[in-house]
Amino acid sequence: MEPVMAKPTTFAGSVVAIFLEDADNPGQFLRPCGLNSHTVTFTKNMQEVDVPDCDDPELASWIERGVQSLDFSANGSGILAEEAVDNWWDSFNTTESINARVYIGKPTDTVNGRYWAGKVHVSNFEVTGERGNKAQVSVSIVSDGEMVYNKVTAP
Q1: Structural domain tally of the chain?
Q2: Lowest CB count within 10 Å: 55, 82, 109, 136, which one?
Q3: Mean pLDDT by 10-residue block, N- to C-terminus, for the chain (155 residues)?
Q4: How far apart are CA 29 and CA 53, in angstroms?
Q5: What are the residues facing 113 on neighbouring strands?
Q6: Position 56 in a domain
Q7: What is the pTM of this model?
Q8: What InterPro entries does its record include (predicted)?
């Protein structure tokens, strides 16, 4: 008898999303309209050290690595929605970092929802237009300090 594979619980691609704090309502986070694609990246910046063999220093050494710092970035792209232009521009056009959340799962999903929260900079805001097509937008955010991992829980 072959083992039965358990079916995983999956996420729809549309529930990976960038939310920015509403400047008019601190503590409230809004999802700017129009983005169809999101990428979330966590990076460990490593410090490398060659460690020679004590008995035979002529042998090839092994590299040992220590974590020097952690980094977070996210990108989104899609249709340029008029409703989101001012929000993206205001978030980009400041030298101060802003509060953001990046969700995997709907913010109301108290079973499977998760998000990272922290200060970010909108480091890229790109608008493209081509005759005969809808205008497109691409945005990038980078962390300004720690991004805290959270599970969404029922209120």
Answers
A1: 1
A2: 55
A3: 82 90 91 95 96 94 96 97 95 96 82 89 97 97 97 75
A4: 54
A5: none
A6: no
A7: 0.83
A8: Phgtail_TP901_1 (IPR011855)
